[in-house]
Structures are given as structure tokens and as C-alpha cells.
Amino acid sequence: MRKLLVFTLSILFTYNCAVTANAGKMTVTDTTAKKTLGENIIVEESTGGSITLPFWIPNISDDNFTQAVKDSLINSKIFKSIATKSDTDWKLRMIIIDRDHPWFGIDMTVTTTIKYTLYLKDQIVFDKTIVEPGTATASEMFIGVYRAKRANEYSARNNIKKFISELEALDIKPEPSPEKSKGKK
């Protein structure tokens, strides 16, 4: 009886621990931009995210969200690479302003509000707050904390996808590649 109680409690503990949103699940993989804005971009780590505490609501961490944005920008081909040095003209800042989430429910919908500020040569060329929902259903994920985590991932991915589509609509001429610039001299 005692072993059964310990086993049951350990299963409940394991399945009820909240887990932060996964960067790979937040990454946009199904969007290819029709144009490239630039060669490379510096993506600063987002702010406003938070760690996930055990037995609490799953959150989106800054490092996982930042990684998802970087991977999404490269996957979409709107930028060719992520810069590691500040020798590029493009810079992106992101703030996770809000994450509206349910405390319980069958189908869980999370809505993220994220502010994106894109700079070109230290001038703001895009400054917008994007609000996007994401819903995870009980049929795809039975356990509540994992359903909430999945809803976080869907919402963040939808938000990043909307951001990329907004970037694609910008009327900015792409920066010339270094190879093309050398040929014009």
C-alpha cells in the first residue's frame, strides 16, 4: 500500500510540474518570405518573459523566445543570417508585454502580446505590438499543464509568424550584399 501511495504521488508530481515553452515548438517553419530585407541582423534577447515555476502556469522564457525568433527569421529567409557582432545595420528588440492565459479549461487559449522594434542604421523602421492567440485542445494534450504549455507555443509561433508577414510588407529596399557592392566599384 505504501509503495502504491509513493508511486501515485510521484506520478502526480511528475505530470503536474509545469514546463516552459519549447523554442523549437515556437519556431515558424512553414513561411518563406518573398523578399529578403537584409544580409544579417542582431537579435537582442527579449525581455518580459519569465521562468516557469513547478506546479504553476507554464511561461515563455526570454532565451527560448529569442531563439525561436532567430530560427524563424532564418527559416523564412527574410534575413540570411544572425549576426554575432554589432557590425550590421539591422537590429531587433522584443518585449513580451503580456501573456493572457486560462487557469483551467478543456481547450486552452493563450494570447501573447509582443512588441517588436526593428532598427536599420539606428533608425526605427518597424515598431509594432502584435497580439496573437494560440489554442491547444484536450484531444491533443490531455494533461492541463502540458496543454497550457502547448497553447503558449502556438500563441508565440503565431505571433512570430505575424511579425514576419508584417516585415515582408515593409517598403524598404534590401541592403546590397557585399559581393554586389564590390562589383559596382
Radius of gyration: 20 Å
SSE order: HHEHEEEEHH
Strand order of the biggest β-sheet: 2-1-3-4-5
CATH topology: Double Stranded RNA Binding Domain
- Secondary structure: number of strands: 5
CA-to-CA gap between the ends? Answer: 83 Å
The DSSP helix count reads 5
Quick check: average pLDDT? 77
CATH superfamily: Lipoprotein like domain
Question: Your description of this structure?
Answer:
With 185 residues, this protein is α/β, with parallel strands linked by helices. It has one domain: Double Stranded RNA Binding Domain (2-Layer Sandwich), CATH 3.30.160.150. It contains five helices and five strands, in the order ααβαββββαα. It has a five-stranded mixed beta sheet. The longest helix has 25 residues. The C terminus is likely disordered.
Quick recap of the structure?
The protein is α/β, with parallel strands linked by helices. 36% of the residues lie in helices and 26% in strands.
Question: Secondary structure elements and their pairing?
Answer:
Blueprint: H1 2-16, H2 23-26, E1 38-43, H3 62-76, E2 79-82, E3 90-100, E4 108-120, E5 123-136, H4 144-168, H5 178-184
Parallel strand pairs: 1-2, 1-3
Antiparallel strand pairs: 3-4, 4-5
Helix pairs in contact: 3-4
Features:
single chain, 185 residues, 36% helix, Double Stranded RNA Binding Domain
